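Page 37, continued from 36.
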């Protein structure tokens, strides 16, 4: 089950980042892709053969229709609620040579947005695992998730280890993903804090082409490096590579693999995502099999 985090990305490709200051700049054709973290995880997990229920808020607008169409095409069981603020958007500026991106995220959800318990509880009771996007309304499901004893994961993205918005997700999830870029040289300390102060069994910090780092409860206090998988083709777009990593890891976890093997599967899925535009071709189980032989 995936909660929250759908929307549409507008992708602008530039020669390099940062973009030079100018009144105007010619770029290749600007594209729109339904995506965002929750949508990418839902579609990616479904492509790997997992049954997926996805719940979220979208708007009664054309952007919301694009989200619905993408999830239907990906065979995801999507049940949305309508938000008066409309569907979320982002503008992603992508370095054409490296695939590196800078994202301008439209966090339009009102602060009092909530999912009714009568809506989400039946889905939680049937879930084998819940992945929470860090939308503010998602945190209000945590008490019920904990009471039901359903394992929960979350992706903190570029958390610096300080922002209060992310902290409750970090400390109340069994499996925590985050980007090493957010905390920089402090990433090992942040990972240790999550394990020490929270309930997490496993913490994973992704580092793009630098691979990822893994820490587990009761294991070494030094993050274990997991090498990146070479990208199997030209780098087209790094948008969604972290979400693909999450999908590969969750696929391994739900199949009963140990965290190191899950991290290798995640790295393979993330590398594959860099070869496609807009997460249009998520990796399938046959693409992960070489990592398990």
């Amino acid at each position: 089950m995936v909660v929250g985090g759908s929307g549409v990305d507008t992708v602008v490709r530039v020669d390099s980042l940062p973009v030079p200051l100018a009144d105007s700049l010619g770029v290749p054709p600007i594209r729109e892709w339904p995506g965002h973290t929750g949508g990418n995880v839902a579609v990616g997990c479904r492509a790997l053969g997992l049954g997926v229920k996805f719940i979220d808020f979208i708007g009664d607008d054309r952007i919301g229709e694009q989200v619905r169409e993408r999830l239907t095409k990906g065979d995801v069981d999507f049940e949305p609620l309508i938000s008066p603020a409309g569907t979320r958007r982002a503008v992603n500026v992508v370095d054409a040579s490296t695939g590196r991106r800078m994202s301008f995220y439209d966090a339009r959800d009102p602060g009092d947005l909530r999912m009714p318990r009568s809506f989400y509880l039946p889905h939680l009771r049937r879930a084998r695992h819940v992945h929470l996007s860090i939308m503010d309304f998602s945190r209000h499901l945590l008490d019920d998730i904990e009471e039901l004893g359903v394992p929960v994961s979350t992706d903190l993205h570029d958390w610096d280890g300080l922002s209060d918005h992310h902290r409750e997700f970090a400390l109340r999830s069994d499996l925590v993903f985050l980007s090493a870029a957010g905390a920089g040289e402090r990433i090992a300390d942040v990972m240790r804090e999550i394990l020490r102060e929270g309930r997490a069994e496993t913490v994973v910090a992704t580092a793009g082409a630098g691979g990822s780092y893994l820490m587990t409860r009761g294991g070494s206090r030094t993050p274990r490096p997991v090498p990146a998988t070479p990208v199997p083709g030209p780098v087209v777009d790094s948008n969604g590579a972290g979400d693909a990593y999450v999908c590969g890891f969750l696929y391994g976890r739900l199949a009963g693999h140990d965290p190191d093997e899950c991290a290798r599967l995640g790295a393979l899925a993330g590398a594959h995502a860099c070869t496609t535009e807009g997460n249009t071709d998520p990796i399938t189980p046959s693409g992960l099999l070489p990592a398990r032989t």
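The chain is about 35% helix and 20% strand. Flag for discussion at group meeting. Residues 259-273 form the longest helix (15 residues).
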